[in-house]
Every structure is written in structure tokens, then in C-alpha cells.
Amino acid sequence: MPEGYASNLGKRADVLEGKLVGMKSHDCHVFMETLVPIAFRGLPERIWKPITEISLFFKELCSNTLREDTLLLMNQNIRVTSCKLEKFLPCGFFDVMEHLPVHLVQEALLGGPVQYRWMYPWERKIGKCKRFVKQKNRIEGSICEAYLANSKR
């Protein structure tokens, strides 16, 4: 990946516990789109393929250009992919968030490319404002003051 595109994921890996810690939302997005198919490549094909399909679904959904015919095909395929995942993942794994991709295609059809609706720029802005917090008991007031002070410049 290009320099500065995502955090150094090697620093986010805790090898002893087998966990990824301290990842920002964009890091999770990059991990899910690009690294998940590589990470699970050693699993049996019946497990690896649906995981790769869901990864490619999100990669296609977040692309710069969306075509209506492709979105309609993705809408059909995501349902099949979800059923494939249900075959080997336990029932307790599936909650509202695992059902969400079924609705994302319709949202893309209505709202256009996802980049225009990301939260990453707002998260960065709020992160900058949080650095100005002086009163730990009145965090929201400090953030508002910092925002107003910076917007006047």
C-alpha cells in the first residue's frame, strides 16, 4: 500500500495474544478490503471463498465509480454470500451488523458513491478538537470552544 495510506498494521499486531489493537476505522476498512483474503488464504476453500467474496463486495462498493448494473448484480450476490457464511459460522455470530451489507447496495443506488458519505474527515476533525481538551469533567464544552476558536482563524 502507498506510504501514509493506512497505519503501520505491523505495529498494531499483538503476536503473543493474536490480536490487532488500536486500529482506527480506516485501518479496519483497509484490512477488510485488502488483507482479509490474504490472511485467510490457508483455510479450506468453502470458508475462504465467502470471506473473499464479502471482502470484494466492500471493495467494489467503495470504488470511485459505481455502475447500476454492477450494483444490481452485487445486490443478488451478497445474499448468496451471506448464506454461504451462515453454513460455517455459528448462529451467535450473526446480528444486525452481519445483515447490514444486504442494505448497503440500495443505499449506494440512492446516495451515490460512498466517499461522499464517509465519516473519516469528521473523525479526524473531532480528533484534532479532542487534543485541545483542558477540562476533563467538561469535555464537550472544551471541544466546542476549541472548534469555535479554530473556525475564527
Description:
There is one protein chain. By secondary structure, this protein is an all-alpha fold. The protein has two domains: 40-117; 120-151, no CATH class. It has eight helices and two strands. The protein has helices at residues 9-12, 25-39, 45-61, 68-88, 96-99, 101-111, 120-130, 139-151; strands spanning 13-14, 19-20. The protein has a two-stranded antiparallel sheet. A hairpin with a 4-residue loop joins strand 1 and strand 2. Helix 3 (45-61) packs antiparallel against helix 4 (68-88). The longest helix is centred in the middle third of the chain and has 21 residues, at 68-88. The chain is globular. The two termini are 35 Å apart. The mean pLDDT is 83.
Q: What is the radius of gyration computed over CA atoms, rounded to a whole number of angstroms? A: 19 Å
Q: Specify the structural class.
A: mainly alpha
In sequence order, what are the helices and strands, one letter per element? HEEHHHHHHH
* Proportion of strand residues: under 5%
Mean pLDDT: 83
How many strand segments? 2
Please give the structural blueprint:
Elements: H1 9-12, E1 13-14, E2 19-20, H2 25-39, H3 45-61, H4 68-88, H5 96-99, H6 101-111, H7 120-130, H8 139-151
Antiparallel strand pairs: 1-2
